[in-house]
Design goal:
This protein has 506 residues and is of the alpha/beta class. The protein has helices spanning 3-17, 24-40, 45-59, 62-65, 70-85, 113-127, 144-155, 168-182, 199-212, 227-240, 257-266, 287-294, 300-310, 313-325, 330-342, 345-352, 359-365, 370-381, 385-389, 396-406, 410-432, 436-445, 465-474, 482-492, and strands spanning 101-106, 132-136, 158-159, 186-190, 216-222, 244-248, 270-274, 282-284.
Length: 506
C-alpha cells in the first residue's frame, strides 16, 4: 500500500540525508517535492495545501537549521503532519456499551460492505471477545442474504433468520429485539447499496437509523476509487451523519489518496481498513502507525500483534530453548516458514520493520513470495524424519529423490539446504548471545520497543548505520545479499515475541 508515495518520500529524505547541513532553500526544495508526491498520490488539493502550510511553518526555522541532523527533524515534522492528516489519535469502535452495541453498515454497491460485515464480526469476536449477530437488511441485491449467512458461518457469528414479508425497518427492529433476547454483545446491520448515491438509498438509511439508534454508523468505501471515495463519504456523512469510515482494499492502493484525504475532507475518522481478501484481513486504523508505514519507519506494534496471533506460547518457548542450546533442524525451519505465512508473508513482514520496506519490491522481483515458501514447505515434507533432523545425510541421490517427490528441482533443494544452513548458523549466534534474551536485547537496540521509535527526541526512527551493522554482524555479515536477507527473516519467524496460549490437548 502507498507504494508510489513511499518511494517518492524516501527519495526526498535520502537526498536530504546526504547533505551535512541544510539551509532554508534546501528545506523549501524538499517540501516542494513532498507536495508533488502528495498530489501525485491523489490527495485532495485543499488537504495538501493545509498540510504544507502546517509543516512549512515548523520546518523552516532555527530549530531545524541548527540541528546536527536537520534531515531527521524534517522527517519527524512530516511524520507529525501525516499523523494529523490521518486523524491524529486512533478512534476505536464504540462497542463497550450496554449490549447490544448496534453497528449500521452503509455504502455503495460493490464497495465490499457485506464482506466487511463478516470480517468485522470475526474481528470483534476474536480480538474483542464479543458475541456478534449479523443481520441482512439488503432486499435489493440478489443473494445478498445468502452471502452474509455464509460469512456468518465462517466467522461463527449469529445470523438473523430471513423473512420475505418484512420491510427493512421491520427487519432492523426484529434484529435488535432478537439480539437483546439472545444476549448478543454486538449487532451488525448490513444495508443495501446502490450503484450511485440517490435519495431512495439515503431515505432508507435514515429510517433504519431512526428505528434502531445505532452506536456506530460506518461507511464502507473502496480506497481504489480515490477521490470518488472521498466524495461518497462527504455525501453519506451529510445525509446520515456517519460516525466512522471503513476503507476496503487498502492493500491494493498504491497511491493512498483516499486514505490521506478522507478524514480531513469529511471530518469522519477512519476506524478500520481492509488489507486483504481473507476474512481475518481487517485491521483497526491507527494514524501514527500508518504514517510510520508510509515513511518506512515500520509498524512494530502490528508486527508484534501478528506474531502473538500466529505463534503459540508453548511453541515460542520451545523455539527459544532450542535457540539457547544452538539446536535448529528442518522441522524448526518448517515451523518458522508456516508462522511466516500466518503473519502475512515476507513482504508484509518487511513492510512492518523499520527501514526495510524499500526491500519489498526487490524481494518480489527476486521471486520471493508465498509460492516460493509453499515450494520450500513441499521440499521439507518430502524428506524423511531422519533427513529433517540430520541434514548432513542429504547426498546427491537423496536430493534428487526429494526434488522428484516435491515437484521441484535439485537446484531448489540445494537452495533450501543453503538457506537452512545460514539460518542454523544464525540461531547458534543467537544462542551465544543469550537465546531469547539476546533476541529481545537486539530488538530493543533496533528500536523495536516503540511503534515509531526515536520520534520523540527528534531522532530518525529508521535504523542508522551502526544499528544496521549490528544486525548485519549478528546475521552473518550478509545483509547486502537480498536472497539471504529475505530467507533469514523468513526462517526466523521472529520467535520469542510471545504468542497466544496453546490449545489444551484432550
Amino acid at each position: 500500500m502507498f507504494d508510489s508515495l513511499k518511494d517518492k518520500l524516501q527519495s526526498v529524505f535520502s537526498g536530504l540525508g546526504k547533505r551535512g547541513t541544510l539551509n532554508e532553500a534546501d528545506v523549501n526544495e524538499a517540501l516542494r517535492e513532498v507536495r508533488l508526491a502528495l498530489l501525485d498520490a491523489d490527495v485532495a488539493l485543499p488537504v495538501v495545501k493545509t498540510f504544507m502550510d502546517n509543516i512549512r511553518e515548523k520546518a523552516v526555522g532555527a530549530a531545524v537549521l541548527k540541528s546536527v541532523r536537520p534531515d531527521q527533524q524534517v522527517i519527524k515534522i512530516v511524520n507529525d503532519g501525516l499523523v494529523d492528516m490521518l486523524g491524529g489519535e486512533a478512534k476505536p469502535l464504540i462497542v463497550d456499551v450496554a449490549p447490544p452495541a448496534v453497528i449500521l453498515m452503509a455504502g455503495l454497491q460493490g464497495s465490499g460492505k457485506t464482506t466487511t460485515a463478516g470480517k468485522l464480526a470475526l474481528h470483534l469476536q476474536s480480538k474483542k471477545r464479543k458475541k456478534v449477530m449479523l443481520a441482512s437488511l439488503d432486499l435489493t441485491r440478489p443473494a445478498a442474504r445468502e452471502q452474509l449467512r455464509a460469512l456468518s458461518e465462517q466467522a461463527e457469528a449469529g445470523i438473523l433468520p430471513e423473512s420475505d414479508t418484512e420491510t427493512t425497518v421491520q427487519l432492523a427492529k426484529r434484529a435488535l429485539k432478537s439480539a437483546q433476547l439472545q444476549g448478543y454483545d454486538v449487532l451488525i446491520l448490513d444495508t443495501a447499496g446502490r450503484l450511485a448515491i440517490d435519495e431512495a438509498l439515503m431515505a432508507e438509511l435514515r429510517e433504519i437509523k431512526a428505528a434502531v439508534n445505532p452506536h456506530e454508523t460506518l461507511l464502507v468505501a473502496d480506497s481504489l476509487t480515490g477521490q470518488d471515495a472521498v466524495r461518497t463519504a462527504e455525501a453519506f456523512h451529510e445525509a446520515v451523519s456517519v460516525t466512522g469510515i471503513v476503507l476496503t482494499r487498502l492493500d491494493g492502493d498504491a497511491r493512498g489518496g483516499a486514505a490521506l484525504s478522507m478524514t480531513q475532507v469529511t471530518g469522519c475518522p477512519i476506524k478500520l481498513v481492509g488489507v486483504g481478501e481473507k476474512l481475518d484481513a481487517l485491521e483497526a486504523f491507527d494514524p501514527a502507525r500508518m504514517a510510520g508505514r508510509i515513511l518506512d519507519m515500520g509498524d512494530v506494534v502490528a508486527l508484534v500483534e501478528k506474531a502473538a496471533e500466529a505463534i503459540e506460547e508453548e511453541e515460542a518457548m520451545r523455539m527459544a530453548e532450542r535457540m539457547a542450546s544452538g539446536k535448529f533442524d528442518m522441522n524448526d525451519f518448517l515451523t518458522q516458514l508456516r508462522q511466516l505465512q500466518k503473519m502475512g508473508g515476507l513482504g508484509g513482514l518487511l513492510g512492518m520493520l523499520p527501514g526495510l520496506g524499500k526491500m519489498q519490491k526487490q524481494i518480489a522481483a527476486a521471486g520471493v513470495d508465498d509460492k516460493m515458501i509453499k515450494r520450500q514447505e513441499a521440499i521439507i515434507l518430502s524428506m524423511n524424519k531422519r533427513e529433517r533432523v540430520q541434514v548432513g545425510l542429504l547426498n546427491a541421490s537423496r536430493r534428487k529423490r526429494i526434488a522428484a517427490g516435491s515437484g521441484t528441482t535439485v537446484q531448489d533443494v540445494n537452495k533450501l539446504v543453503k538457506q537452512y544452513q545460514d539460518m542454523a548458523r544464525m540461531m547458534k549466534k543467537m544462542g551465544k548471545m543469550g537465546g531469547l534474551g539476546g533476541l529481545k536485547n537486539m530488538m530493543s537496540s533496533l528500536g523495536g520497543a516503540s511503534p515509531n521509535p526515536g520520534l520523540g527526541d527528534g531522532q530518525n526512527s529508521v535504523m542508522d548505520a551502526n544499528k544496521m551493522a549490528e544486525l548485519q554482524k549478528m546475521m552473518g555479515g550478509n545483509m547486502p545479499n537480498l536472497g539471504n536477507m529475505a530467507n533469514r527473516f523468513g526462517g526466523m519467524g521472529l520467535p520469542g515475541l510471545g504468542g497466544k496460549p496453546s490449545k489444551k490437548r484432550r
